[in-house]
Amino acid sequence: MSVSRSSRPEGAEPRVGVWLVGARGSVATTVVAGRAAVTAGLHAPTGMVTETSLFADSGLPPLSSLVFGGHDTVDCPLPKRAEALAAGGVLPHGLPTAITSELAAADREIRPGGPLPGDTRDPDELISTFTADIQDFVGRRGLARAVVVHVASTEPAPTGSDLPPSSLYAAAALRAGCPYVNFTPSTGLHHPSLVSLAGSVGVPYAGRDGKTGQTLLRSVLGPMFAQRALTVRAWSGTNLLGGGDGAALADPAAAAAKNAGKERAVTDTLGTTPEGQTHIDDVPALGDWKTAWDHIAFDGFLGTRMTLQTTWQGCDSTLAAPLILDLARLLTRAHEAGLTGPLTELGFYFKDPLGEGPSALGEQYAALTAFAERLRGRARGRRSGEPVPEHAGEANL
Q1: Where do the Myo-inositol-1-phosphate synthase GAPDH-like domain residues begin and end (predicted)?
Q2: Which residues form the domain of 129?
Q3: Tally of structural domains, the chain
Q4: Are residues 251 and 325 in the same domain?
Q5: How would you write the pLDDT of the chain (397 residues) with one tens digit per residue?
Q6: Which of 250, 281, 315 is the last residue of a domain?
Q7: Could you say which of 12, 155, 306, 331 is the most buried, measured as most Cβ atoms within 10 Å of its Cβ?
Q8: Which of 112, 27, 32, 36 is closest to 68 using CA atoms?
Q9: In terms of domains, do 15 and 126 share one?
């Protein structure tokens, strides 16, 4: 998977690939545009935890080293997609024009995804094609390594043994020897037939379903009620959203996959499952903007009944993009450091994190802090020439 330094100009920093599945969607476009804007000094890296002092001297690849490509089943060019996002207020006015060359460069690296309507290729053929696309990207661009990040629209949970599209892409990432991130609630590496492959390839991976809004708030409020010994009787929620994700989640099966992570956060942080459900409504007029409302009924001292209501209004794409840039850098560094398997310490970023880590945001942040220190120690060891273990991560220490 690695390429020799001779394929790069002498003294140039190693370049790192970020292969986005769903590369022409709103989230991916915002990732590419955001990285270009930050590296050009046009905007601050707001929302990027990897740009805080927590990860100073931990050996993360610089943002300027990231090179983008990916798969998608649509053909709208990234510059045009960025213009539409700017018109909708997702990207700053004028930004697409300022970074047209960066958007066009990423668009040239996008390959057809699948399966497409009428596609006659079997799963292994699709996986082989996707793998070859990733390997060609790495070799042709002279990349030191690449990370595959799944940001395509949510798919329904599979009902049979066939691999859904997200799992085809995940299998391709593993075959290509690339770290993998599932930022969606889609199946990805969770398919039973990929367990053996994931365990044998020797790359780090993380997921599932990025925690950007309502669940982020729930992972803070749940521990508050539990720690103050306040009894939560019911916790109900509603999501109103548009865009591609809203359309995808209009499918009840896809919505069920999304809601599972939201409801798990409540159950895990409270230690019990209160009454109430979470509903998702597609409102096309909202575009990439989302309103999430929670109604929490709880009992206080002497059984006094009270309620808390919260409203979260935000733009999913711009909430997600800095997290994806964080994860791409973290997985790259973990791969370079020899870490393998599920990175449970990155549960801070996900609704439905891998492994048995904590669900409360404060505890997840503590785990992330420990992970940052581990990477910092490995970076010091590398600079001093001291040997470091080949494997790390919570489960492998």
Answers
A1: 213-317
A2: 5-210+318-396
A3: 2
A4: no
A5: 333 333 445 556 899 999 999 999 999 999 999 999 999 999 999 999 999 999 999 999 999 999 999 999 999 999 999 999 999 999 999 999 999 999 999 999 999 999 988 999 999 999 999 999 999 999 999 999 999 999 999 898 888 889 999 999 999 999 999 999 999 999 999 999 998 899 899 999 999 999 999 999 999 999 999 999 999 999 999 999 887 777 776 677 766 766 676 778 888 889 899 999 988 898 999 888 999 999 999 999 999 999 999 999 999 999 999 999 999 999 999 999 999 999 999 999 999 998 888 889 999 999 999 999 999 988 776 655 554 444 333 333 2
A6: 315
A7: 331
A8: 32
A9: yes
What is the rounded distance in angstroms from the CA atom of residue 345 to the CA atom of residue 394? 7
- State the CATH number of the domain containing residue 82: 3.40.50.720
Distance, CA of 62 to CA of 290 (rounded, Å):
31
Complete edge-to-edge strand list for the sheet that includes strand 180-182: 110-112, 66-72, 16-21, 145-150, 180-182, 204-207, 341-342
Q: b/e string for 203-238 if b means 16 or more Cβ within 10 A?
A: bbbbbbbbbbbbbbbbbebbbebbeeebebeebebe
**What DSSP element (H or E) covers 148?**
strand 145-150
Structure tokens at 104: 């066009």
Alpha-helical segments (H) within the chain: 26-39, 78-87, 95-98, 100-107, 123-140, 165-175, 195-201, 214-227, 243-248, 252-270, 316-336, 361-384
The CATH number of whichever domain residue 270 belongs to comes to 3.30.360.10
First-last CA distance in the chain: 25
Among candidates 265, 281, 287, which has minimal Cα distance to 208?
A: 265
Instruction: Say if strands 66-72 and 231-241 run parallel, antiparallel, or are unpaired.
Output: unpaired
Q: Alpha-carbon distance 166 to 187, whole Å?
A: 6
